Amino acid sequence: MARIVGLWFILFAVWLLLSGHWDSALLVGFGLGSCTLTVYIASRMDVADHEGVPIYWIGRFLLYLPWLLKEILVANINVAKVILSPKLPISPIMVVFRSTQKSDLGRVLYANSITLTPGTITTGVEGDQLEIHALTRKDVDGREEDEMDRRVSIVEGAS
Amino acid sequence: MVWDVLSWIFILGGLFFIVVGGVGVLRFPDVYTRLHAAGMTDTMGAGLVLIGLSFQSGLSFESGGWLITVRLLMIWAFLLFTSPIATHALARAALHGKVEPIRGDVEGGDS
Q1: Best residue of B17, B20, B27, B36 to probe chain A, by most A CBs closer than 10 Å
Q2: How far is A88 from chain B (nearest CA, A)?
Q3: What is the ipTM for the molecules in this complex?
Q4: pTM for this one?
Q5: Looking at CA atoms only, how far is residue A34 from chain B in angstroms?
Q6: Does B105 reside within a domain?
Q7: Taking CA atoms, what residue in B is nearest to A92?
Q8: pLDDT at residue B107, rounded to an integer
Q9: In a domain, B78, yes or no
Q10: Residue B76: inside a domain, yes or no?
Q11: What is the residue range of B37's domain?
């Protein structure tokens, strides 16, 4: 129930921000109606579950985001240096990492975080094994990835 | 004025990363390494350009600029969720099509 109500509020907030109509009662009424219809259809389709609407993760995810952005910045500068260096010092490598997340959604978050940082791409997930393609051997020395794995597990929490 | 200068710095920074990403796509040898370069344009490139644009729209309530800023941030958030999935799908499709990734040192890279 909390998920359904949470989904409704998120949808309506997005509707208000994207439309910018605050004053016209008719238009806001249509917005309320379409949000309610969408939530009704979503609950009939059983997609408003812990994967579709992870409202309990939002707070911890927002705490994780600044660290992820810092990692993206650092990785981007590293890849830019590789591209601009005349020797093009790359040593592509495929490695397999083990993820410690318990849920599928946690693994998705970890795999997406790895892909978002340039220099590493998740090419496959099987069980808790993540297959990763890296631009240089240095990109997968394991330190950043272990740290990321730990932080994503915190986002996942006990729920 | 200060915001204009900041906005210029961020937009030019974003353009720099987009151009470098394009150069990388041309210079790297195979599909997988090129994906790394393409990933730069939609994380840093688009991110910095959007931050620079949001300095232009500002946070003023009267002119409605804050709504545009919120929309720019939403574009950025959607990019943050969708671009790794597109990258992953491309890499997966290439692996599925039996494109062998180049491994090891290439073109006199570091050892």
Answers
A1: B36
A2: 6
A3: 0.81
A4: 0.83
A5: 20
A6: no
A7: B103
A8: 56
A9: yes
A10: yes
A11: 2-96
Listed residue (A73, A107, A93) closest to A139, CA to CA: A93
pLDDT reading at B39 higher than 50: yes
B18 is a domain residue: yes
Reduce the DSSP state of residue A122 to 3 states and report it.
Answer: strand
pLDDT over threshold 50, residue B61: yes
Nearest in space to B45 (alpha carbons), one of A51, A99, A80? A80
B33-56 as b/e: b if 16+ CB within 10 A: bbbbbbbbbbbbbbbbbbbbbbbb
How close B11 comes to chain A (CA, Å)?
Answer: 15
Q: Among partner residues B17, B23, B88, which is closest to A122 by beta-carbon distance?
A: B88
Tally of structural domains, chain B: 1
What one-character-per-residue DSSP string does A138-154 give? Answer: GGGSSHHHHHHHHHHHH
The closest alpha carbon to B84, from A92, A118, A90, belongs to A118
The answer to whether B13 faces chain A, any CB pair under 8 Å, is: no
Token reading at A97: 């990492």
